[in-house]
Amino acid sequence: MRKTRGLGPFRGFVTAALAGLCVVLAPLGGGCQSDTASYCASRCDCQGCSERETEDCTDDVEDAERLAEHDGCAAEYSNFITCYVDEGTCTNGAFITSSCAAAADALRGCSNRSAAFIKTACQEERAKRESCGLNGGGASPCTGGDECAAYCALSASCDDLSNPQPDTPYVNCVVACSNSGSSSGGGP
Predict the structure, then answer these.
(1) Domains of the chain, residue spans
(2) Taking phi first (over 0 means left), then psi (-120 to 50 degrees means alpha), and beta for anything else, what does residue 165 get?
């Protein structure tokens, strides 16, 4: 939580006024959830985080926000968080944000240390496979065909991952990725 500086005796009044505004706006759909809280809520609502995991997420993302601001990358940070919350989808216990790859890359390019909380597609694939009771995924580095196959896995069902069948969207996606130069078995 950021400290309110320079308000002296008005600090308590400002805090109370903002809290009251949130109470008034919440029933009207104008909630006061921060981008950080939205990010962690989206991820944890899908993946079923424990209270501790939710707190860790919030700490990591708040630290990333401060680093991004310090490094002059607040816009890139905000663009990624907004994309993640607005465009991500929950599929089989994995929060998939394949459409946010460019925003993630822009934040990494501006401030790699502020982007440390962002998982690669391969790390996300590993987490999804684990949530399905499977092994695999997690290629490092996550580039080319490995990244492509990871996105295929993220959009596949657990059944598709555990028992890939010829000529299904998942298998066809992975086959198409093989032209990208896959170096490890992220797919079937």
Answers:
(1) 34-117, 119-188
(2) beta
